[in-house]
Amino acid sequence: MWYQKPVINEELLQSLPNLKMVANSGVGIDHLDLNLLSSYGVKVSNTPFVVSTDTADLGMALMLASSRRLVEGYQMAVSPETEHFPADWLGAEVSGATLGIVGMGTIGYKVAKRAKAFEMKILYHNRNQRNKEEESAVGAIYCKKIDDLLQQSDFVLLSVNLTPQTHKLIGKRELELMKPTATLINISRGLVVDQDALVEALQNKVIKAAALDVTYPEPLPRDHPLLKLKDVIITPHIGSATKKTRRLMME
């Protein structure tokens, strides 16, 4: 399967009586009905580890681009109307800021390694606490409650699988817990965030900005309000999109 195609439904399974395996490119298998596949005796594979480095890199890229207003800056620099660069055009610091990572799996931990080089204070929320050696290697502090992480973080980065437990994990209540100067970064799945609540939070300055590699649907309708907000960066689900990694995924 590539980009969730072909769609694996009962009709397809009935038409392929000798099917043994569905090999899914990428980590997420939320688009597959695992119970249905199991009932046909079909196994499922995915590519969880080969995507982690590139996705962690993109998480950092989104954080830097958003904080330093890279897209706005580029538009200003190339605009035919620009006659001078304003002296009061400022971004926010990444170095020394507090990063909250929601989901400290393989990708989340690699983000933490990169953030350590930026001398960030790292908080994380996960189903299970990592061991002390792993925590101390990146200087990460465990938050048993997600609320504690949201209240303290300058950047909140989402790196969780989409499951019934994480569906709209970040909604109106969670966004209101965040700092008004905070940025939300999503490199997991669009449905981990309540998009309507996010639009409202950005419009009302409940949080400062968002940097999203994932949305729902993908792509968004061309008139979607997220596409009109200047404090939002959206990339086209490119976490694993490098030549080397895509080749490894195929292999």
From TrEMBL:
Residue span(s) of domain D-isomer specific 2-hydroxyacid dehydrogenase NAD-binding: 60-239
CC per GO annotation: cytosol
Cited Pfam families: 2-Hacid_dh, 2-Hacid_dh_C
Keyword Cytoplasm included in the entry's annotation: no
Residue span(s) of domain D-isomer specific 2-hydroxyacid dehydrogenase catalytic: 2-249
Matches recorded under Gene3D superfamilies: NAD(P)-binding Rossmann-like Domain
Lineage top rank: taxon: Eukaryota
InterPro entries according to UniProt: D-isomer_2-hydroxyacid_DH, D-isomer_2_OHA_DH_cat_dom, D-isomer_DH_NAD-bd, NAD(P)-bd_dom_sf
Family, similarity comment: Belongs to the D-isomer specific 2-hydroxyacid dehydrogenase family.
Protein name: Glyoxylate reductase/hydroxypyruvate reductase
Organism: Podiceps cristatus (Great crested grebe)
